[in-house]
Amino acid sequence: MSTQTSKSDGNQNRSGTSPNGRPAKVTTQTVVEMKEAGKKISMLTAYDFTMAKIVDQAGIDVILVGDSASNVMAGHETTVPMTLDQMIYHAQCVVRGVETALVIADLPFMSFQVTAKEALISSGRMMKEAGVHGVKLEGGRTITDTVKRIVDAGIPVMGHLGLTPQSIYKFGTYKVRAKENAEAEQLLEDAVKLEEAGAFSIVLEKIPSALAAKVTDAVSVPTIGIGAGPDCDGQVLVLHDMLGLNKDFKPRFLRRYADLDKVMTEAVQGYIKDVKAVDFPNENERYE
After folding, report:
1. Do 263 and 253 share a domain, yes or no?
2. Number of other residues whose CB lies within 10 A of the CB of residue 64
3. 19 and 114: one domain?
4. Within 13 Å of residue 196, how many CA atoms lie on the same side as its CB?
5. 65, 121, 164, 237: which has the highest count of C-beta atoms within 10 A?
């Protein structure tokens, strides 16, 4: 028995739940059952071992290894430059830090759009090489055959509708999507088609709150909102944004739960000051 398994087993009882009522292991079925029971689903991004471990131990339900790593980890303007190999690397790091949360990874731009066969190969690599529990694909009716192919192979798929960052050059803007009736109706139809294709959940990004509520009622699988109002079955934010590590990103939907930019800046400045004053290391911080 591995150390990780032993640790996990030690934190659960015979019912398969931890002392605080959290499942011993969150699965795709768990989040579907949460919707059925009216329990909200919490999801955050993570891109490395340390942050994933903190988020998991804090009790998050789902961790998304987002291609937003392109922005917050690599400094790119968009998510487009992210490669499949880079996403697999980040996912590997995250999985090593997680014991309980469901881990889903984005398939990056052009790793699934060309053919369903390519998408299946990309999904298989992500599952086998990184050990995630499912993949997320952006798009609606144009990718339903691809979603079905992946699901039929035994790989869980999370959909993503509304503002789809991989298509930013097509949209030309990060403004709210589906405000007009035609696009709203198409999005609703796309959500139904994604469920029919086998998607176990759907992210709804930056769409009107009323439309998100309508979609949530129309499908039996969970909806996860980001800038889509309170009526989705769950919510997701980029970890670095909600922790205040990214000071420049200030969308209306973002709530900052910490100001780690300030905390970390002050810590580094304190270290610099102590080093220059020969106060660090002191006599208790050195070897004789």
Report:
1. no
2. 29
3. yes
4. 12
5. 65
Angstrom distance (rounded) from CA 217 to CA 191: 11
| Conformational region of residue 198, where left means phi above 0, alpha means psi within -120 to 50, and beta covers everything else | left
Looking at the fold, whether 277 and 144 belong to one and the same domain comes out as no
Q: Does 264 lie in the same domain as 221?
A: no
Q: What is the pLDDT along the chain (288 residues), one digit of tens a residue?
A: 333 433 444 344 433 555 456 778 999 999 999 999 999 999 999 999 999 999 999 999 999 999 999 999 999 999 999 999 999 999 999 999 999 999 999 999 999 999 999 999 999 999 999 999 999 999 999 999 999 999 999 999 999 999 998 877 777 767 889 889 999 999 999 999 999 999 999 999 999 999 999 999 999 999 999 999 999 999 999 999 999 998 888 899 999 999 999 999 999 999 999 999 999 999 999 999
Instruction: Give catalytic residue positions.
Output: 205
Report in angstroms the alpha-carbon separations of 45 from 109, 111, 288: 18, 20, 44
- Strands 102-106, 62-65: pairing kind: parallel
Q: For residues 154 and 120, is the Cβ–Cβ distance under 8 A?
A: no
Domain span at residue 266 reads 259-288
In angstroms, the CA 24 to CA 59 distance is 11
Q: Is 254:45 a contact under the CB 8 Å cutoff?
A: no
- The tokens for 165 are 């960052």
CA distance 216 to 233: 7
Same domain, 226 and 274: no
Spatial CA neighbour of 150 closest among 178, 180, 127: 127
CA distance 91 to 47: 7
Output DSSP code: residue 126. I
Number of domains comprising the chain:
2
pTM of the model: 0.90
56 lies in the same domain as 117: yes
The β-bridge partners of 17 are: 23
